[in-house]
Structure formats: C-alpha cells, structure tokens
Amino acid sequence: MSDLNRLRELMRRLRAPQGGCPWDLEQTFTSLVPHTVEEVYEVADVIASGELADLPAELGDLLFQILFYSQLGEEQGRFTLDDVMAALEHKLVSRHPHVFGDAQVSDASEVAAAWEARKAGERSARRVGGQVSELDDVPQSLPALSRARKLQKRAARVGFDWPDVSGPWAKLKEESEELAQAAVSGERAEIEAELGDLLFAAVNLARHLDTDPEAALRAANRKFEGRFRHIEMALAARGQQLQCCDLATLDALWDEAKRAGL
Fold first, then answer.
1. CA separation for the pair 134, 156 (Å, rounded)
2. Is this model's pTM higher than 0.70 or not?
3. Is residue 11 exposed (0-12), middle (13-18) or buried (19+ Cβ within 10 Å)?
4. How far apart are CA 98 and CA 57, in angstroms?
5. 8 A C-beta contact, residue 205 and residue 216
6. Confidence band (pLDDT; 50, 70, 90) for 111?
7. Residue 158's pLDDT band (cuts 50, 70, 90)
8. 8 A C-beta contact, residue 32 and residue 61
9. pLDDT at residue number 119
10. How confident is the model at residue 80 (pLDDT cuts 50, 70, 90)?
C-alpha cells in the first residue's frame, strides 16, 4: 500500500462512527477552516524562521487538512481525494502549456502573465449569465493586506493603475493628511474609513515597490517582538518592571535593541 493510501485509511479510521476519534467525528467543512488557516501560517512561520528541519512536519499538518476535507467529501458523496488530485493534475497541465504543450515563454514574468490570462478565461467560462468581473474569485477570507494587493493586481491588469511609483507615494501622503483631519473631527466611522484608505494606499505602494505587504508586516511584527522582549529582559536583569519605568528609559532600551541588530 502506498504512503498516500495508508494516510487515507488512517483518515477513514479517525472518522469511523465506531472506534473513531470523537473530535474528528464532530468536524465539518466549516469548522475545519480556522484550523486550515492556522496550519498555513505555521508553514509560513517555519519558512520565515529558517528552521526548515521543521517544515516536513508542518507540511504534514497541512496535508492532513486536505485529507480531512476529502474524507468529508467522500462521506457526503460530493468528491474524493482522487477527484482532488485529478483536478490538480488537470490544472497543472492546462496552465503550463509551455511545459506540456507547444507554447513558448522567455522568462518567469511571461509565465505569470500567461497564467493569469488562463485563470481569467477559466473564470469567464465558469460564469453562467451575469456580469463577469476582473475581481471575481478574489477570496473574501484572505488577510486584508493580501486581499488588497490581489484586488489591485487584478485591476492593474486592465490598465487601472498608476504609471509609476510616484502616484502611490502621492496617494499615501494624501490619505495620511485625510486621516489626520478625520482624527481632529473625532468621528469614529470617518477615522476608520480614512485609516482603511491609508492602509490600502500603503499596500498599493508596496505593490509598486515589488514588496509583499503581508510579509513586510510579519517581519515588522517579529522585529517589534524581538526589541520588546529585549526591553523586558534588560529590565528584569535590573530587577525592574515595565510599568515602573518612564518612556525615556524604555526608548533608550529600544535604541539599545536596535543597535544590537534586533
């Protein structure tokens, strides 16, 4: 029996009404989604940390999610793991005609452009009646920064974009000024709207700078955490607590962490 079939049998055993796992038996497509998202981020964290020895285990956890969904689909007569693999095989072949067909591409950017064009064609083919939008199929459940970037990329494909990076820079400044005005007004709804516009503009600037805003923010989070932990440890070594220190002391320790390369 292949490794994949052994995993399928393990999954069926976990879901067996008699002798299965009570937790696994309670799960549904909907209840699994938060766990799937968590596993994706754990894979991303391992890659970001450079601890690639842990990557097989995390990828295994992610594969378990696919096996679980496939088992639910099989139980409900909707689809099986074989259907999942067949769909993947078809997609890989159809979207790589430069590998499996006669199409010619010169570099990775042409591959990406052709990939997006084929995806657009697939979206149009799936629609029966109604308006087809370039923004169709951008998942609502994506993290907000990632979804903003994807929406902008879709719009840019049809020419709705700044011609160069000066436009996003100016827009970021404009949105920052509008947020400042909203803050003076004290209107919470207006502040939230303007803050959203500022974040959206920041994502647009990141896109023009060829930077993933989600990855950039994750890196900033890690940097903040490292420096903040340095402050905590430094104060603990002095027998002090954060709550008892003034901001000048905390800022000095923050600068110390920066000089240490944290």
1. 10
2. no
3. buried
4. 33
5. no
6. confident
7. confident
8. no
9. 72
10. very high
Q: Do 85 and 5 meet the contact criterion of CB atoms below 8 Å apart?
A: no
Report the Cα 61 to chain-centroid distance in Å.
17
Q: Are residue 161 and residue 231 in the same domain, yes or no?
A: no
> For the residues 118-138, what does the mean pLDDT come to?
71
Output the six-digit token pair for 133: 């939008």
Residue ranges making up the domain that contains 204? 145-211
Number of folded domains that form the chain: 3
Residue 158 neighbours by CB under 8 Å, 6+ apart: 134
* Domain-embedded: residue 125: no
3-class DSSP state of 129: coil
Contact (CB, 8 A) for 171 and 200: no
CATH number at residue 27: 1.10.287.1080
Asked whether residue 86 falls in the same domain as residue 160, the answer is no
- Do 167 and 224 sit in the same domain of this protein? no
> Quick check: is 185 in a domain?
yes
Distance CA 121, CA 123 (A): 5
pLDDT tens digits for 214-251?
Answer: 889 988 999 999 999 999 999 999 988 888 888 999 99
Identify the sign of the CA torsion 157, 158, 164, 168. negative
